[in-house]
């Protein structure tokens, strides 16, 4: 490989391919491996995420979470989900380390009925136990789980926590009551001392992702993308550095243009062959987000004056909207444009939606945006915004086909 010229375009495109894999891996390392948390155990978020939650951008403010990682390299895992009360949204959502969704099991498809679900590697060929409702295969041995249970907070929070406590995660051997093979021993690369090539190659070696991504890897072989490869030529290391700079600049340039996540998030079948920059954008703007059949995400960045939403200098916005067609629920959540996280406000209110807004007499909903919490705190239709540039994410869970196709008109937030 010495002497091979790697163009800036090839380096950038290779980075865009690897970006989602690398971001997924870094999240695994930072939230689980580095702090010494175990895989195949749920990490429970017992409160609605707010401005104190900084682990990943644009998390919702509508649900409790059961998150963590499955490692199915040695054997499958079985998740047992309780039955729910009618009308409560829930989902068992998993994604492989390629940032593709591989399971969306929840109230949209099963109503209030829970069940048992087995997660296995793509090459596992064991017997499926009795009582398992569904088997999910993964191209990566490491699988991100982000389960959600809707709650409006307040008195409802304890009911949601009680349901959260009834979820069970077991390896197949524990589920069957037999001795098992134990967890695989993995030498996880530390992001602080490795580059994105090494980390991506680690992921590609842990499962069958390299086989699934063979066409992409053929294109980027010269830069050093190869399962398990850790040693790189000076030309490859230089290209990796240039590719990261060019790739991130491209991702940041694209971000303001992305107002609907329909082409950014989804399953491997949906997006495997799609543009890698759009796929990377889905990771950048909404890591671990749901595909459009489950939830449509619409971003609102500016008011009626064409300027970024910003509560400084007493600026106030008002929007009136008809509710979108959804089978589950919908909401708006506010994030700061600088860090893509929720910003602190005195009443710790970060979202409003069909479960918290009061409908007007004519069937419309009104939302008021302002940084003046003292003047608006008693208004249930008030949503605080920070005194800095911000954006809203409208989430529509269980969207109709028309909503999925982008036919729902996002309301205008008029400056008042």
UniProtKB/TrEMBL annotation:
Residues 39-170 form the DUF1254 domain. Residues 294-400 form the DUF1214 domain. InterPro entries: DUF1214 (IPR010621), DUF1214_C_sf (IPR037049), DUF1254 (IPR010679), DUF1254_sf (IPR037050). It holds the Pfam family DUF1254. This is DUF1254 domain-containing protein. It comes from Rhodococcus erythropolis (strain PR4 / NBRC 100887). The lineage of its organism: Bacteria, Bacillati, Actinomycetota, Actinomycetes, Mycobacteriales.
């Amino acid at each position: 490989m010495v002497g091979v010229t790697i163009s800036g375009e090839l380096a950038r495109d290779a980075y865009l391919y690897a970006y989602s894999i690398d971001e997924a891996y870094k999240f695994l390392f930072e939230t689980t491996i580095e702090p010494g948390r175990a895989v195949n155990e749920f990490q429970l978020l017992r409160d609605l995420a707010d401005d104190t939650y900084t682990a990943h951008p644009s998390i919702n403010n509508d649900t409790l979470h059961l998150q963590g990682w499955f490692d199915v390299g040695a054997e499958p895992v079985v998740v047992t989900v309780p039955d729910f009360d009618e009308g409560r949204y829930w989902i068992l959502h998993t994604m492989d380390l390629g940032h593709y969704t591989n399971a969306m099991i929840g109230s949209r498809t099963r109503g209030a009925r829970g069940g048992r679900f087995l997660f296995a590697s793509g090459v596992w060929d064991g017997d499926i136990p009795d009582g398992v409702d569904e088997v999910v295969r993964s191209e990566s041995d490491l699988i991100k789980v982000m389960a959600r249970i809707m709650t409006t907070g307040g008195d409802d929070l304890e009911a949601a926590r009680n349901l959260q406590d009834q979820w069970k995660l077991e390896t197949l051997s524990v589920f069957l009551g037999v001795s098992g093979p134990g967890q695989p021993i993995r030498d996880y690369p530390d992001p602080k001392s490795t580059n994105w090539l090494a980390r991506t190659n680690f992921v590609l070696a842990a499962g069958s992702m390299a086989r699934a991504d063979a066409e992409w890897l053929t294109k980027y072989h010269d830069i050093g993308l190869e399962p398990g490869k850790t040693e790189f030529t000076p030309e490859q290391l230089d290209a990796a550095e240039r590719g990261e700079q060019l790739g991130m600049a491209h991702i940041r340039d694209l971000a303001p243009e992305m107002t609907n996540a329909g082409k950014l998030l989804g399953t491997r079948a949906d997006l495997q062959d799609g543009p890698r920059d759009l796929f990377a954008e889905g990771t950048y703007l909404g890591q671990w987000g749901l595909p459009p059949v489950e939830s449509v995400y619409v971003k609102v960045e500016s008011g009626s004056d064409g300027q970024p939403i910003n509560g400084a200098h007493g600026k106030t916005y008002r929007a009136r909207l008809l509710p979108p067609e959804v089978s589950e629920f919908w909401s708006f959540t506010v994030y700061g444009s600088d860090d893509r996280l929720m910003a602190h406000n005195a009443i710790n209110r970060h979202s409003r939606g069909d479960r918290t807004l009061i409908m007007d007499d004519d069937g419309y909903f009104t939302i008021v945006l302002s940084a003046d919490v003292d003047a608006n705190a008693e208004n249930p239709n008030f949503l605080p915004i920070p005194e800095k540039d911000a954006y809203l994410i409208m989430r529509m869970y269980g969207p109709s086909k028309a909503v999925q196709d982008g036919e729902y008109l996002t309301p205008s937030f008029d400056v008042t």
